[in-house]
Amino acid sequence: MAEKRLAAGSRAEFFMRDLDVVANGRRVGRSTHGSWTTHVWSERAPMATYLATVDVGRWQVRSGATPGGIPEYVAVDPALTKPDLVSHFWRTTAAVTDRWASSFGPYPFDSTGAIVVGASHDGVQIPFSAETQTRPVYSAADSDTIVAHDLAHQWFGDSVGFARWNEVWLSEDIAMFAT
Predict the structure, then answer these.
(1) Cβ(147)–Cβ(116) under 8 Å?
(2) Rounded CA gap, 102 and 136, in Å?
(3) Which residues pair with residue 140 across a beta bridge?
(4) Which residues form the signal peptide (predicted)?
(5) Domain extent for 134
(6) What is the dihedral angle through the alpha carbons of 65, 83, 40, 16, rounded to the nearest 10 degrees?
(7) Rounded to whole angstroms, how far apart are CA atoms 130 and 120?
(8) Using one digit for the tens of pLDDT, what is the confidence trace for 52-71?
(9) What are phi and psi of 45, to 5 degrees?
(10) For residues 41 and 151, what is the distance between their CA atoms, to the nearest angstrom?
(11) Which of 128, 138, 156, 161 sits at a 20 to 30 Å CA gap from 147?
(12) pLDDT digit string (tens) for 65-121?
C-alpha cells in the first residue's frame, strides 16, 4: 500500500458560524456573509494525508514572522488557564524554527506555527502532540523538547514515506536524532 499524498497547491474552504478554523499552510482568505464566515487555507507543498489537520474552535491567535522572516501562525484554545500560552508557543516555535533553518537549511514550507488545545482527565493535563505539516498540534502540557522534535519533522521526519504504519519509526528516528 503506497502512502497517500495531497497534491501540491491544496486549498480548502470551510464555512462556519461563530467558530474559527486553523489548518495546514497559510490562511489566504476570510470573509463573512451574514452569519457565515468562509475560512480559506492553502498549502503549496505536497503533503501526506496523515499530516493534514483542520482544527475548529475559538482561538487566541498571533500571526507574523519569526526573527528569521518565516511566516508564523500560533492558535491557542482560550479556555486553557495556563497564563500566556500564546506568547510561550510563539517564542518557542520561532526560536526552534529559526534554529533548525540555520542547522538544516531553509525552512521547506510557507509557514510555521502551532495549535495548542486542552486535553485533560480529572483536571490533570494530558501531554500529547501531533506533527502535522507546517503547524503541529500540542497539548498545553507539552515541553519545548516536544516542540523541537515535532518541528524537526518539517525538514526530515516527514520526507521519509512509508508503506505500512509499522514503518513509522523511519520518520520518528530522524526527528529524534535532531533533538
Answers:
(1) no
(2) 20
(3) none
(4) none
(5) 5-178
(6) -170
(7) 16
(8) 899 999 999 999 999 999 99
(9) -85, 150
(10) 20
(11) 161
(12) 999 999 999 999 998 877 788 999 999 999 999 999 999 999 999 999 999 998 777
